[in-house]
Write a structure and sequence with these properties.
133 residues; mainly alpha; two-stranded antiparallel sheet; 2 strands; elongated
Length: 133
């Protein structure tokens, strides 16, 4: 370890937050599958489009799932990765909610409104419980 690395605090992340992140990533995988497979009602109107929504959900899910793995493996970089991934997911959910509120179906809006607070609570827990080793 270099002198600079020893001066920087390391943060640990509660594994329960990693499990919560993994849960959200799993729901995103299901949502991406539903949208990409075309199982959404045909009544959606612009600006909502199921295929780009599915791609966005898949990307956010991979990012969040990768961070969850880092947390669950107790990686030394788990805390900053978890904070960055959760922040990215919150931003993605805000964009998704904005689009689905204007043209998506009710289940899509409910999904975003339900999972967004879970992500926000996760980020708050990460920031408040991240402690230096």
């Amino acid at each position: 370890m270099t002198k600079v690395e020893s001066l920087q605090p390391r943060h640990t992340v509660d594994r329960r937050i990693g499990l919560l992140m993994a849960f959200v990533a799993a729901t995103l995988a299901v949502a991406a599958f539903v949208h990409l497979a075309g199982y959404t009602p045909a009544g959606s109107k612009p600006p909502f489009d199921a295929s780009p929504a599915g791609v966005a959900e898949a990307v956010i899910g991979v990012v969040l799932g990768s961070a969850a793995i880092a947390v669950l493996r107790s990686s030394s970089r788990a805390w900053p990765v978890a904070v960055a991934a959760t922040s990215f997911a919150i931003f993605g959910f805000l964009v998704g909610l904005n689009i689905t509120a204007r043209g998506g179906d009710v289940p899509d809006v409910i999904y975003h409104v339900t999972m967004l607070p879970v992500l926000i609570v996760s980020l708050i827990l990460l920031v408040r419980t991240g402690r230096a080793d």
